[in-house]
Design goal:
About 40% of the residues lie in helices and about 20% in strands. The protein is of the alpha+beta class. The chain has 2 domains: about 110 residues, Phosphorylase Kinase, domain 1, CATH 3.30.200; about 180 residues, Orthogonal Bundle (Transferase(Phosphotransferase), domain 1), CATH 1.10.510. Helix 12 packs antiparallel against helix 13.
C-alpha cells in the first residue's frame, strides 16, 4: 500500500512543509496528514536530530484510538546504503516488538518505510514525562527516588536480559502513566543507531562513527562509542540526581581529577543512599554497578543494614575461647562417653583448686567414673 505522501508532496501541499538540515531533507507534516491511509496526524509531540514524533489517530480501529508515529530520518549517502539501513531498521523494529510485551515499554503497533524515511507506530501513553513532573511539583525526596528506582529497574533488567542497551535513559524518556501511575521507558537508542550512515564497504559503521545518547547522561565509555549495560545504570543515576536537585547534568560541578559529579552538598540524603548514587554514577565503568539486579539488591537490603551490622559484631577470640574443661557439643548433642569425660575434667579441675585432701576423695570418684564409663 502506498502512502498519501507519495501523492502529495510537502512542497506543493498545505499539509506539509520542509525542515532542512545539513545533509538531509526532512518533511514535517501538519495536522490532518494521513500516513498509509490509516494514521491521521493530530499534532507534533517532539522533534530532534533523528526525526519527528507525532500524535496520531488510527483510523482503521473502532473509536480511532490515539497512537504515536515516529518519523525517523536516516543519514545516508547513496541508495545502497539506504537499503542496508532499511534492513537494519526492520531488524531493530522486530526487537522493539519483542520488548514491547513488557507493561513498562510502549507496544510497537506497526512499522514501515516511505521513500527515505522510516516510521514506527507505537502505543500512546498518556501522562507526563519525568522532566515536566519535577518542574511542576518540585524536587523529590529520597523516599520518592528510591521508589522510582524500584519501579524502573525491573524494566531495565528486562531489556538487558534481551541483550539491549537503551543508551538514552533520561527524564524526557520516562513517562508516568496518568491511568495507573506506572513508569514507562520510551525512545530506545538502538533504533536510532540504524539511521546513521553506512560506509561504501558495506560494513555497519555506527559504533565507530556515531554517538547515540545525550551528553551528561551518557558515561565516558558510551561517549567513546563503547556502551555497556552499566552505561544505562549511569544514566539512571544522573536521572536520580535531577529528581533530587532539579538540576541538569551541565549544572553540576565535577572533580577535575576523577571526573566524579559533585552533588552531595546540594541535597541531604542518608549516607547509604548517597553511596548508592555515587556508585551508580562512577565514571570508571569497572567500579560502577554492573547490572540492575545489583542496585535492586542494595535497595532491598538497605532497611536491614543496621540490624545486620549489629549481628556481625563480635568479641575478640581470646575472650570467647572455651577453657580446656569445656566440651563443645556437635550439633547440640553430647554422647554418654563425652558427658562422662566432661565430668571427669570438671572434677579434676576442682581437685586442683581444693588441694590434697579433696584430691584423695575426688580422685577415687574420678577413677570410678572413668572405669564405669567404659563398661557402659
Amino acid at each position: 500500500m502506498q502512502d498519501s505522501l507519495q501523492h502529495s508532496s510537502p512542497l506543493s501541499s498545505p499539509l506539509g512543509r520542509l525542515s532542512r538540515q545539513p545533509g538531509r531533507r526532512q518533511a514535517v507534516h501538519d495536522p490532518g496528514h494521513v500516513f498509509r491511509d490509516r494514521y491521521r496526524i493530530m499534532r507534533v509531540l517532539a522533534s530532534g536530530g533523528f526525526g519527528i514524533t507525532y500524535l496520531a489517530q488510527d483510523q482503521h480501529l473502532p473509536s480511532s484510538p490515539l497512537c504515536v508515529v515516529k518519523q525517523l530520518c536516516p543519514k545516508v549517502r547513496n541508495p545502497l546504503a539506504l537499503e542496508r539501513a532499511k534492513r537494519r531498521f526492520r531488524q531493530e523494529a522486530k526487537v522493539l516488538a519483542k520488548v514491547g510485551s513488557h507493561s513498562q515499554i510502549p507496544r510497537l503497533l506497526d512499522y514501515f518505510t516511505i521513500h527515505k524515511d522510516f516510521y514506527l507506530v507505537q502505543e500512546y501513553i498518556q501522562g507526563d514525562v519525568l522532566t515536566k513532573e519535577v518542574r511542576r511539583h518540585g524536587v523529590q525526596s529520597e523516599i520518592q527516588v528510591k521508589r522510582f528506582l524500584k519501579d524502573l529497574l525491573p524494566v531495565i533488567k528486562f531489556i538487558h536480559r534481551r541483550r539491549i542497551i537503551h543508551r538514552d535513559i533520561k527524564p524526557p524518556n520516562i513517562i508516568r502513566c496518568k491511568q495507573d501511575g506506572r513508569l514507562v521507558l520510551i525512545d530506545f537508542g538502538a533504533v536510532r543507531e540504524c539511521l546513521v550512515d553506512v560506509g561504501h564497504s558495506g560494513n555497519y559503521q555506527a559504533p565507530l562513527t556515531q554517538f547515540v545518547g545525550t551528553p551528561g547522561f551518557a558515561p565516558p565509555e558510551q561517549q567513546a562509542l563503547r556502551p555497556t549495560f552499566a552505561s544505562d545504570i549511569y544514566a539512571l543515576g544522573i536521572t536520580c540526581l535531577f529528581m533530587l536537585t532539579g538540576k541538569t547534568p551541565i549544572e553540576f560541578d565535577t572533580d577535575p581529577a576523577s571526573g566524579r559529579v559533585l552533588w552531595q552538598d546540594l541535597v541531604q540524603v542518608s549516607p547509604r543512599f548517597a553511596a548508592l548514587i555515587d556508585k551508580m554514577i562512577e565514571p570508571d565503568g569497572r567500579e560502577r554497578y554492573q547490572s540492575a539486579d545489583e542496585v535492586l539488591r542494595v535497595l532491598a537490603l538497605e532497611p536491614y543494614q543496621d540490624s545486620l551490622a549489629m549481628g556481625l559484631s563480635h568479641k575478640p577470640l581470646g575472650s570467647a575461647r572455651p577453657s580446656a574443661e569445656t566440651v563443645v557439643p556437635i550439633q547440640g548433642y553430647l554422647s554418654p562417653v563425652q558427658r562422662q569425660a566432661a565430668e571427669i575434667r570438671q572434677l579434676r579441675s576442682r581437685q586442683r583448686r581444693t588441694g590434697p585432701k579433696g584430691s584423695r576423695s575426688l580422685g577415687s570418684r574420678s577413677v570410678m567414673l572413668s572405669s564405669s564409663s567404659f563398661h557402659r
